[in-house]
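Form 7-S
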Amino acid sequence: MSTGPHLLDLEPGNYYFCACGRSRNLPYCDGSHQGSAVQPFVVAVSEPQNVAICACGRSATRPYCDGSHKADAGH
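Output:
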């Protein structure tokens, strides 16, 4: 099953995206990584932008999607 990206419209500010995959508020970090060596991806946005945040965990450009999820669908 393919897991496509989270498509978001972000306003200026700092965003913390989950890196551990355990957040109940994906793609955002909710602190579920506490006690592990994993830290969230911190993204500073200076102007409004549309982004695709990786949901499959295999992107080489995390937290951004690079299309790696398409391998699951046989593309």
